[in-house]
TrEMBL record:
SUPFAM superfamilies: Oligoxyloglucan reducing end-specific cellobiohydrolase (SSF110296), Sialidases (SSF50939). Keywords: Signal. The lineage of its organism: Bacteria, Pseudomonadati, Bacteroidota, Flavobacteriia, Flavobacteriales. This is Sortilin (Neurotensin receptor 3). Residues 519-545 are annotated as: Disordered.
């Protein structure tokens, strides 16, 4: 081949290759300023893991949570703010450096109360500015850090206790020590790969003395084992160089989890609650652990030790100690007797005492943080911690739409996506108790289905009648007992509204909303007897139903064909029927790269193709933390993985967009991930979105809102994801692209909002403004950039501040023009801040970047529920415009008065001979001005009598703020005020023709500069 031809061909091929290469944006470059909003709720809050208070400032408290990160209070627990959003939200331990408590805080991630639904951590973090910023120190594979102890005399000496993996072996367990502030670490106590540190304590008077509680444990999807020969309590008196068991007086045989505590006021006194088969209970040592004596075996002390192993001694009184438990137990006689703490949410996990007030304490529960001022007798809940742990959520089609969901140990609820004044606690309504899971709204009736753990109850609730009926499927004589997952699956047909599905090991269907059931499948699980009916708990039997296995976990009816139903099981089967349940095919063998028996957490039947579906698998319950997401387009005959290295954390849920099948939303243990290209590339969404576990996602079809149920931060919503839906390679290649938007509606609302107090959490409402949404290929950094709204004739209606970020930009417009120019006065006039509202219609959006101009259009509509006629709207606009002009006429009049007075005062000061002419101008115009605007007093205490500006402004604000035509009273008042304005103008002209005219002659005669007055148009444009 000729050399020139060869080079030319290579050039063409290279050019084609470049053209074919996709533009890929990641993270904030893709999402720009598209933001999530967190709506809570907080009335049921969520599980607290660790409470820590500042050693010298009783106003500062930190709370580490199960799935909601770390929160800080600076007002003695009255309210908290989140300080850890960007990092793993599952917390094991928080520690405040006693030598630098205002600044240095350590956080170990990974929940340590090891129930079946716990999240995982990703290491150890440190802040040196009181929680404002964090740096990861290491321990990425620790999974769960239970303890952090800091030498009060040497902040560089820190000990970390690693509980480690819950679902598998781990050599990362043990006690670690650093002497250089975390740069390097030495493992100083390790037992084996099954035994971790569940608690580590330092003697408050001797930092060389340490106690380490080692716990052998393991959880599987179908069982839990607490205890074994490796569980033991160790002590070191040489800063961790050597360790010895201190079991003299403890029960013989295998032990389980310990709860240990040192009395700060008398460190020789040490307490331990010991899990054992015999003689379990509270032990006390008065010789620093050398000898132990059993004091108490009360149920409240020994119940569920894997979940309740926190023991706390009062900082000043060694006879007062508190033990976590179902209701919390407090002793005031050194552990001989106990009574329950005051009334609050059950399941008590941690307690701290106020450092100054001996009767004040703070308690962390499954339902949030509580405070007591009387030693635990009565409890007050902190109302602003939105830590609710949703397992599932769903939405309806009401306006505003409602969100439904079930919570860990906090029942089932439903509440609005928006509410006057924000979404308050009282907006949420209960529809279930216990551990709540799936909650579904009937598509056409005011009926809600809800359930509690293991389908113990499946409720059908009639909202209007306030009537509940239990409708769960029951075992039938002669047939197998039903096995329901702790998180039992429910589904409603999109084709037959009364059709209701539930899954045990069989698929059950009801055509009458649960009144009658029939099975339409055989056992769809592996039915492995080795994973069924095992005694769970280990040393302490714990058979709650949470470990029921080999069950159906997810049900998905195809929205395109009611005969196509997908079923996924917790033991790894992916079943499909294409004939309404007559025959079933297990397709899991067709999935390449998936470990056998991996939990099928969610199946999403496609809205675009009958044969298409997505399957999300979660292997963490077998120690597999990888991400598994697959798609089929041929009814499961073949599957392809759409998971990439971009995704962090094992996944639980996927949501396909209803319009663009390449737009997918994935919930993982560490947040939300989005792809716009069908899974080739994923990006983590972090705009006001914490790195919390996203357990379920739903997409509201009318609003295009993405609604997430998180396991630790409540419900989080991204309003209107339609810009992502429109993303394509064509769009990404443009310098600027305006996204299509639905017509915007001017809502006719003006209520007063709710009644929450300053310390209660209120969820954000969606914005009611028009949203101008556009994409920038590059961030705008140099040159002028403007964004204006124009009418169809090109007249400017409003000027807005443009977003300049790379990616998606969202700019709000409140449907208003510019506010009127207001006459200058001594005080504010609040009506002057009101801009006139536009009329419904078509408007241009004009974006200018340097010399380039980009134009789009939007449609604005009136509220479809409005009763206001077109004639009334015209009348409203007419009067608003007249009053607007009156406001600006008055402003221009006062401006001219002020300029004349100013010139006269300057002249009088510098030219005493001028006082004859200036005095008259000042006197006459000042007298006039005092009738036009307030010239004395202030805005509140020394308020002056209102003048023309204040009265006109108030009328204008009222009329411009309303939607209906002006009332007769308003029109009459307008006439009165406009008459006064006309009279004022006439008076000004009279003064101008006489006194000001004389002043001008004096200025001209003496060669002085004349009074300069801007033309009205120029003045108004300033």
């Amino acid at each position: 081949m000729n050399k020139k031809i060869f080079i030319a061909v290579c050039g063409i091929l290279f050019s084609l290759g470049m053209q074919a290469q996709d533009i890929v944006l990641k993270g904030k470059e893709l999402f720009g300023n598209l933001e999530a909003r967190q709506i809570g709720p907080a009335l049921m809050s969520g599980r607290i893991i660790d409470l820590e208070n500042h050693p010298t400032n009783n106003k500062i408290i930190y709370a580490g949570t199960a799935g909601g990160g770390v929160w800080k209070s600076e007002n003695a627990g009255a309210s908290f703010v989140s300080v850890f959003d960007d990092h793993a939200q599952s917390i094991g331990a928080v520690a405040i450096d006693p030598s630098d408590p205002d600044n240095t805080v350590w956080v170990g991630t990974g929940e340590i109360w090891t129930r079946n639904s716990v999240s995982i951590g990703d290491g150890l973090y440190k802040s040196t500015d009181g929680g404002a910023n964090w740096k990861k120190i290491g321990f990425e594979n620790s999974e769960r850090i239970s303890s952090i102890e800091i030498n009060p005399k040497n902040p560089n000496e820190v000990y970390v206790g690693v509980l480690g993996a819950l679902w598998g072996d781990s050599e990362d367990r043990g006690v670690y020590k650093t002497t250089d502030g975390g740069k390097t670490w030495e493992k100083i106590l390790y037992v084996n790969e099954k035994t971790g540190v569940n608690d580590l304590l330092m003697d408050p008077t001797d930092p060389n003395t340490l106690y380490a509680a080692m716990w052998e444990f393991r959880r599987t999807a179908w069982g839990f084992n607490s205890g074994g020969p490796s569980s033991a309590l160790y002590k070191s008196t040489d800063a961790g160089k050597t360790w010895n068991k201190i079991h003299n007086g403890f029960p013989k045989g295998d032990l389980g989890r310990f709860a240990i505590a040192i009395a700060p006021s008398n460190p020789k006194t040490v307490f331990a609650v010991v899990e054992s088969k015999e003689d379990k209970g509270l032990y006390r040592s008065d010789d620093a652990g050398a000898n132990w004596k059993l004091l108490n075996g009360d149920f409240g002390l020994v119940v569920r030790p894997f979940y309740f192993s926190r023991l706390v001694v009062h900082p000043k009184n060694p006879d007062i100690l508190v033990k976590g438990g179902l209701f919390g137990s407090i002793s005031r006689d050194g552990g001989k007797t106990f009574k329950n703490l005051g009334n609050m949410h059950a399941d008590i996990h941690d307690i701290v005492f106020d450092i100054d007030n001996p009767e004040a304490m703070y308690v962390g529960t499954d339902g949030g943080v509580y405070r007591s001022w009387d030693g635990g007798a009565t409890m007050d809940m902190v109302d602003n911690l939105p830590l609710s742990q949703f397992y599932h959520i769903s939405v309806d089609n009401e306006e505003p739409y409602n969100i439904y969901g079930g919570l860990q140990d906090n029942g089932s609820w439903w509440g609005p996506s928006s509410s006057p004044g924000g979404i308050e606690a009282r907006d949420w309504k209960r529809v279930g108790v216990g551990d709540g899971f799936r909650v579904l709204r009937h598509p056409t009736k005011r009926i809600i289905y809800s359930e509690m753990q293991g389908a113990q109850n499946v409720w059908r609730y009639d909202i209007d009648k306030n009537y509940t009926k239990n409708v769960q499927p029951l075992s039938i004589k002669g047939e197998a007992d039903l096995r329901f997952n702790w998180n039992a699956p429910m589904a409603i047909s999109t084709h037959q509204p009364d059709r209701f599905y539930m899954g045990s090991q069989f698929l059950h269907i009801s055509e009458d909303m649960g009144d009658n059931w029939k099975k339409i499948s055989p056992d769809l699980t592996t039915n492995d007897p080795a994973k069924q009916d095992k005694e769970s708990g280990g040393i302490s039997t714990d058979k709650s139903g949470a470990e029921t296995h080999t069950t159906i976990f997810t049900i998905a009816e195809s929205p395109l064909d009611e005969k196509i139903i997908w079923v996924g099981t917790d033991d790894g089967n992916v079943q499909i029927t294409k004939d309404g349940g007559k025959s079933w095919t297990n397709t899991v063998a067709n999935i390449q790269g998936l470990p056998k028996n991996t939990w099928v957490y969610h199946i999403e039947a496609s809205s675009h193709k009958k044969g298409a579906a997505y399957a999300v698998f979660d292997g963490h319950a077998s120690g597999d933390m990888n991400t598994y997401v697959y798609k089929t387009e041929d009814f499961g005959q073949t599957w392809k993985s759409i998971a990439t290295d971009d995704i962090v954390g094992f996944a639980r849920n996927i949501q396909e967009d209803y319009v663009n099948e390449d737009l997918l939303f994935l919930g993982t243990e560490f947040g939300l991930f989005i792809t716009i290209d069908g899974g080739k590339n994923w990006s983590r969404f972090t705009n006001n979105m914490p790195a919390t576990a996203v357990h379920f996602i739903d997409l509201q079809k009318k609003t295009n809102d993405l609604v997430m149920g998180t396991h630790g931060r409540g419900v989080i919503i991204i309003d209107d994801i339609s810009p992502l839906r429109q993303m394509s390679q064509e769009v990404l290649a443009k310098d600027v692209h305006f996204f299509d938007t639905k017509p915007f509606v001017i809502k006719e609302e003006s209520g007063f909002g709710g009644g929450s107090t300053e310390l209660q959490f209120v969820g954000d409402n969606p914005g009611s403004n028009a949203k101008l949404i556009y994409y920038l290929k590059k961030r705008h950094t140099f040159g002028k950039m403007t964004l204006v709204i124009q009418d169809q004739e090109g007249n400017e209606v409003a000027s807005l501040v443009p977003g300049k970020a790379k990616g998606i930009n969202v700019v709000d417009w409140n449907f208003r023009k510019k506010a009127p120019k207001v006459a200058a006065g001594k005080t504010f006039t609040f009506g002057g801040f009101t801009a006139p509202r536009i009329m419904a219609g078509e408007y241009k959006v004009v974006l200018k970047k340097g010399k380039k101009e980009f134009v789009s259009s939007i449609t604005v509509q009136n509220d479809p529920t409005s009763l206001i006629s077109a004639e009334e709207r015209i009348a409203h606009q007419k009067t608003t415009k007249e009053l607007f002009d009156d406001m600006e006429d008055l402003a221009y009049l006062v401006y001219r008065i002020d300029q004349n007075i100013k010139k006269s005062e300057e002249l009088a000061k510098n030219d005493p001979a001028s006082k004859k002419v200036t005095a008259a101008v000042i006197e006459e115009l000042t007298s006039l001005k005092e009738t036009l605007v307030v010239t004395t007093g202030d805005n509140y205490v020394n308020e002056a009598e209102p003048q023309l500006r204040e009265k006109l402004s108030e009328l204008y604000g009222e009329v411009a703020g309303q939607f209906e035509k002006p009332s007769r009273s308003q029109l009459e008042n307008q006439e009165v005020l406009e008459t006064k304005l006309s009279e004022a103008k006439a008076t000004y002209e009279k003064i101008t023709s006489k006194q000001v005219a004389k002043l001008n002659k004096y200025l001209e005669k003496n060669g002085k500069a004349p009074i300069e007055l801007l033309e009205k148009a120029k003045f108004l444009s300033k």
